[in-house]
Amino acid sequence: MIDALFMPHRPRRNRRTAAIRGLVRETVLRADQFIYPLFIKDGAGDEDIASMPGCARLSLDGLLREASEALALGVRAVVLFPAIAAELKSPEAQEASNPAGLVPQAIQRLKAEFPELAVFTDVALDPYNSDGHDGLVSDGVILNDETISVLCEQALCHARAGADVVSPSDMMDGRVGALRAALDAEGFIDVAICSYTAKYASAYYGPFRGALDSSPKLGDKKTYQMDPANAREALREATLDEAEGADILMVKPAGPYLDIIAQLRQATTLPLAAYQVSGEYLMIKAAAASGWLDERAVVLESLLSIRRAGADMVLTYFAKDAARWLREN
Question: Which of 7, 97, 102 is nearest to 57 (CA)?
């Protein structure tokens, strides 16, 4: 027997009951910490996404329904990703800044119906670019500075439609500063920038690209998205984005890069977002569908781990389900 006199520290005392565990809990998961990624399309009717079970390309009517349901569950932010018809894609990505395009229409309808909803938009050219890249392409080279000019027009288009936050996901150098200057010059001083600061060239994006038909036609994205081997580079990107005027910094993907989230949390006072991407979503869905994992338990644990690493907000396709499960707990 162990002499109790020689064991004054018993951490299990703080785990003894649910009430005590609640009192000492360090990390809290809430529905209003989620940003709900939603895919949108032109035309009537919604389309199931084969690569992402449970997700759909939503018509504008479907988008309003989904946003309403999310709001009712306490999810107060969405981010929009457009599925653009092939005939509207071009090497110059002109459709990205079309004021009558799919994204501006969606923003306007959301803000008219739900003014309290925070609407984030994706600022990048891959949905609109016939090359499938986040930037303009010339002879196989992604053009940094020329791309930034188009991104500024895209961000202004979203701001004019009523977006609350524009989110450059392209990973071009200097784009945060250029976007901030362009927005301020047109009077959009209150439109925030959520920068994809550490967006890695990850293998976890496959289902998403299938959802939007946005895979590169030639080559890959390794000349602009970050090398998964690098951590210090994320700190450099964060320093630059903060200096250029970013309001929120993002890490993508989330689960495989918890160390990056933790390092950025120590390096900045800005809010941190993390994106639980399509590959993370699909792995949980597939394992749960086979009966190998408890979907509810694993989803909530995965989201809690992202928050524990230091993320203030999480982009997750599980947003609505997780909000419902949290309400039931």
Answer: 102
Whether residue 1 lies inside any domain: the answer is no
Which CATH number is 190's domain given?
3.20.20.70
In whole angstroms, give the CA distance from residue 226 to residue 216. Answer: 16
Average pLDDT over residues 234-256: 98
Can you name the residues that pair with 252 across neighbouring β-strands?
199
**Domain assignment of residue 106, given as a range:** 35-328
* CA–CA gap between residue 156 and residue 178 (Å, rounded): 11
8 A C-beta contact, residue 144 and residue 135:
yes
Annotated active-site residue 41? The verdict is no
For residue 42, report the phi and psi dihedrals to the nearest 5 degrees: -80, 155
Kindly state whether residue 24 falls inside one of the protein's structural domains: no
* Tens digit of each residue's pLDDT (9 = 90 or more) over 270-309: 999 999 999 999 999 999 999 999 999 999 999 999 999 9
User: Dihedrals φ, ψ of 175, to 5°?
Assistant: -75, -30
Q: How far apart are CA 324 and CA 120, in angstroms?
A: 22
Res. 210: pLDDT tops 80? no
Model confidence, pTM = 0.95
Helix (H, G, I), strand (E, B) or coil at 170: coil
Bridging pattern class, strands 47-48 and 56-58: antiparallel
How many other CB atoms are there within 10 angstroms of residue 163's CB atom?
A: 28
Pick the catalytic residue from 41, 199, 221, 320: 199
Q: Which residues are within 8 A (CB) of 20 and not within 5 positions of it... i.e. 6 or more apart?
A: 13, 14
Nearest partner of 80 among 94, 70, 91, judged by Cα: 70
From the list 94, 188, 172, the residue with the least C-alpha distance to 135 is 172
The reply to whether 15 falls in a domain is: no
Three-class SS state of 267: helix
The rounded distance, in Å, linking the Cα atoms of 206 and 51 is 8
Q: What is the CA radius of gyration of the chain?
A: 21
Total number of domains in the chain = 1
Choose the catalytic residue: 41, 89, 252, 320: 252
Task: Look at residue 9 and tell me if it is in a domain.
Answer: no
Note if 199 is an active site residue: yes
- Within 10 Å of residue 121's Cβ, how many Cβ atoms? 27
